[in-house]
Amino acid sequence: MNTIHDDHDPDLTGEQRAFHEAYDTTLHYLRTRQKISPLNMLDLEGEYYHLTVYEGQDWGGRGVLKNAEIQGQIYAYLAFMNQLKKEQGL
């Protein structure tokens, strides 16, 4: 899944840009890590869990752009883990 968008698209909001940039960057990061040293599902699920905990710690009001960035990272982890499960027949 590739969601690369034109950063100059006037129809994208700042939130959407932050989300897509974080998603694309995180997915690229995970794929690169996988090529260097195969990732196991337990580690990925742990990292995903901590991202969701971090997401929920917004009691201080971090702002919509940071929230969109975190959401992009979370969705990238989900996409990567689902693809990995599919490849492993899980």
From TrEMBL:
- State the superkingdom: Bacteria
What's the name of the protein? Uncharacterized protein
